[in-house]
Specification:
Elements lengths: L6 E5 L6 H10 L6 E2 L3 E2 L14 E2 L2 H9 L3 E7 L2 E6 H9 L4 E4 L2 H10 L4 E6 L3 H11 L4 H15 L7 E4 L3 H21 L2 H9 L1
Parallel strand pairs: 1-7, 1-8, 2-7, 3-4, 8-9
Antiparallel strand pairs: 3-6, 5-6
Helix pairs in contact: 1-7, 5-6
Bound molecules: guanosine-5'-diphosphate (GDP) and adenosine-5'-diphosphate.
Length: 204
């Protein structure tokens, strides 16, 4: 039987650089993870494409998905719903491929309950002031939303101890290198005790 893929969850406060780091990871030539595109009720930002950045949904459509149990997890974040399509994740893991989720912390906590064997990585800012300046520099939010995101960020940072690893996003390249190294190490660690090796030993 083929090994199941690894579920990799990258989370952390808004504005820490999750999207930037994720894009860089997928731009690197040797990345073999499958990115799970989320559903959201947020309006597309300039340049965002439906089915590439997100599947953009109305509130009614999103609530329909919740009722039909089509989401592995979902959360309401700063007034919008965000959620992970469960069928895509399960099918891709069953096919033996690693799935990469980039989600906020409430969602990551729900995934932890359903997939405790997942690999949970918290992306941390070098400091709170650096976090604020990244949200401001991005320029996509109003002053009021920035303030709400900063308040949320402080609570989110308190949850970092629940993760398997904390990666500081000082530079994007270094953060991506660390995440790549963690995934390689986790594969080695898990395969050491995997069913495949146990079976080989039994057969000999
Ligand atoms: N729980 C959950 N959070 C998500 C999902 N997709 C994206 N997010 C998170 O929702 C938050 C807001 O995303 P977005 O509006 O794109 O803004 P940005 O990531 O802060 O630029 C971010 O922390 C994302 O990581 C999802 O499927 N589930
Ligand atoms: N390592 C970094 N150093 C400096 N700026 C960064 C770094 N990582 C991300 N940024 C910037 O911070 C802002 C927020 O990043 P983003 O990826 O949108 O965060 P998130 O997805 O966690 O909300 C963006 O303007 C991005 O260019």
């Amino acid at each position: 039987m083929r090994e199941k893929g690894l579920l990799i969850v990258l989370s952390g406060p808004s504005g820490v650089g999750k999207g930037t780091v994720r894009k860089e990871i997928f731009a690197r030539p040797h990345t073999a993870f499958e990115y799970s595109i989320s559903m959201t009720t947020r309006k597309p930002r300039e340049g965002e494409v439906n089915g590439v950045d997100y599947f953009f949904k109305t509130r009614e459509e999103f609530e329909g998905l919740i009722k039909q149990d089509k989401l592995l997890e979902y959360a309401e974040f700063v007034g919008n719903y965000y959620g992970t399509p469960v069928d895509y994740v399960r099918e891709t893991l069953e096919a033996g491929k690693d799935v990469f989720l980039e989600i906020e912390v409430q969602g990551a906590r729900q995934v932890r309950e359903k997939f405790p064997e997942g690999l949970f990585i918290f992306l941390a800012p070098p400091s709170l002031s650096e976090l604020q300046s990244r949200i401001v520099t991005r320029g996509t939010e109003t002053a009021e939303v920035i303030q709400r995101r900063m308040t949320a960020a402080k609570e989110e940072i308190e949850m970092m101890d629940l993760y398997d690893y904390v990666v500081e996003n000082d530079t994007v390249a270094a953060a991506c290198d660390r995440i790549g190294a963690i995934v390689i190490a986790e594969h080695c660690r898990r395969e050491r005790v995997s069913a495949r090796y146990k079976k080989m030993l039994e057969e000999n």
